[in-house]
UniProtKB/TrEMBL annotation:
GO terms for cellular component: cytoplasm. The lineage of its organism: Bacteria, Bacillati, Actinomycetota, Actinomycetes, Propionibacteriales. It comes from the Bacteria. This is Glycine/D-amino acid oxidase-like deaminating enzyme. It comes from Kribbella italica. GO terms for molecular function: oxidoreductase activity. PANTHER family: GLYCINE OXIDASE, SARCOSINE DEHYDROGENASE-RELATED. Gene3D superfamilies: D-Amino Acid Oxidase, subunit A, domain 2, FAD/NAD(P)-binding domain. Keywords: Oxidoreductase. Pfam families: DAO. Residues 6-374 form the FAD dependent oxidoreductase domain.
Length: 482
């Protein structure tokens, strides 16, 4: 017999559970689907930095799309104290915070066109929003002990940018959701069911049907598989690939940990190197973001080596003698145009809440509130229309700028991995990379160009290149039909 709900949320990460919780508290009959251990999910393996400004980049500040995302992150950050308190009936929820503020350091690793410029962008954004920060003498950064060639040149402390315990957050979201009357179904959806242009529910991998007048796809990078059960819709929506990342939980050899997050600005195609305290004697180390056609479940040896080398060389040398407690793999949802997918699709009652890349957990209280309002036919406080799922490709920069950024980031990966080359050879490499990426972009489409990380990945993954070509062809159909 089919179970019947008003809303089914496909995906039990921070976004899906947060939406389910808001709806359940509004009296909606809602179910959230997903395996309890969340294999490969971004939320469960995240450093969970609740950061608005530590993630700011020069490109973010240059466009309407980036400015919108920054503003949403800022609004979301103000919701977190009350949000955590609402999950914890016996406390104010502050015990979920694992870090007291964030130290952003600009060190001698990487390229000035990325690291230095992004460091300046963070300062500029903090000033524009009137947020507190203070400059630090790099030699006074608590706990920091890098090797001399990676010593910091500048540093600032952002006192209101914290981090939370991602595992405990998800546990409390689970409990709060069921306490509010929501139903957790510990299976994944196999397909979306519809009657004409109206969604009717989903069918689980077990074959059992779940009926609902509204279905929200919030399964992160795994959303693409279920969306493709409706091929006509999948063709008109930017496909999702994985921003696969590796993180490590480390038991420090001396039993110490920093009080604050220690991180760099965002770097080549990725978040910055970051070390997050996780209780006495334990830290979380993260730095990687690798575009993959499909979600990954296991870490590549090369990415593990890169991650640990960054942590040891740039943050604390005795991490090399510390115990590796756990390696974690997460898959961030990345749309082919790099932008979120938020709102109703071309099938009535079928919604998407994904494509948030590195911002999903930070944005979860805000997006849960706003998506719930849309589902209930109410007016929200932010306009999600900019990122509606059925759209022509969003392109924030022209082709020449995208190619230039791609080349710069590719060169930066060499410096971050400590390559040693004759001084004039990088100029030659840069020249030929520019030619190669321009040719690849020209072959995709006369006008549309993917964001830098997708352009770079398309050279390696032929399936991503084909997905881009298919999406651009469908995008031209969408434009012509208007």
């Amino acid at each position: 017999m089919s179970q019947v709900f008003d809303v089914v949320v496909v995906g039990n990460g921070s976004l899906g559970l947060s939406l389910g919780l808001v709806l359940a508290r509004r009296g909606v009959r809602v179910a959230v689907l997903g395996q309890p251990h969340r294999p490969g999910a971004a939320s469960s393996s995240a450093g969970a930095m609740i950061g608005t400004f530590g993630e700011v980049t020069t490109t973010l500040l240059k466009t309407e799309y980036g400015r919108t995302k920054l503003d949403w992150a800022y609004r979301a950050s103000k919701l977190w104290p009350d949000w955590l308190a609402s999950l914890s009936p016996d406390t104010d929820g502050r015990e979920l915070f694992t870090a007291d503020g964030t130290v952003v350091m600009l060190n001698s690793v990487g390229l000035p066109e990325i690291d230095t410029d992004n460091y300046r962008a963070i300062r500029r954004a903090l000033g524009e929003y009137g947020e507190r920060f203070e400059d630090l003498d790099p030699e006074d950064i608590e706990w920091l002990d890098p090797e001399p060639t990676a010593r910091p040149l500048q540093a600032m402390f952002i006192p209101d940018e914290h981090a939370v315990n991602a595992h405990e957050l998800l546990v409390r979201l689970d409990r709060a959701f069921t306490a509010a009357g929501g139903v957790l179904i510990t299976q994944e959806a196999a397909r979306i069911d519809r009657d004409g242009d109206q969604v009717t529910g989903v069918t689980l991998v077990s074959g059992d049907p779940i009926s609902a007048g509204q279905v929200v796809l919030a399964a992160g990078a795994a959303t693409q598989t279920i969306l493709e059960t409706l091929p006509d819709q999948a063709a008109m929506i930017p496909g999702l690939v994985s921003g696969y990342g590796v993180s490590a939980l480390v038991d420090t050899v001396d039993g110490t940990s920093p009080r604050s997050v220690i991180r760099t600005p965002n770097r080549a195609f990725a978040c910055g190197l970051h070390v997050v305290p996780r209780g006495a004697g334990q830290v979380y180390v993260g730095a990687t973001n690798v575009i993959s056609p499909d979600p990954r479940s296991r870490a590549l040896v090369s990415d593990v080596l890169f991650l640990l080398d960054c942590g040891v060389r740039q943050v604390r040398r005795n991490l090399s003698r510390s115990g590796l407690r756990k390696l974690q793999v997460g898959n961030r949802p990345v749309a082919l145009d790099g932008m979120p997918l938020l709102g109703e699709t071309g099938v009535a009652g079928l919604w998407m809440m994904t494509g948030t890349y590195r911002d999903g957990l930070t944005l979860s209280p805000l997006l849960a509130r706003e998506m719930a309002a849309l589902l209930l036919g109410e007016e929200g406080t932010v306009d999600l229309q900019l990122f509606r799922p059925v759209r022509s490709p969003i392109q924030a920069f022209d082709r020449a700028d995208i190619v230039s950024t791609t080349v710069t980031h590719m060169m930066a990966t060499g410096y971050e991995t400590n390559w040693s080359l004759p001084v004039d050879l990088p100029l030659t490499i840069e020249h030929y990379l520019r030619l190669a990426y321009t040719r690849i972009a020209d072959e995709f489409d006369p006008e549309f160009t993917p964001p830098p990380e997708l352009l770079a990945a398309s050279r390696i993954h032929l399936s991503i290149a084909q997905s881009l070509r298919d999406y651009y062809a469908a995008g031209r159909t969408t434009v012509a039909g208007r």
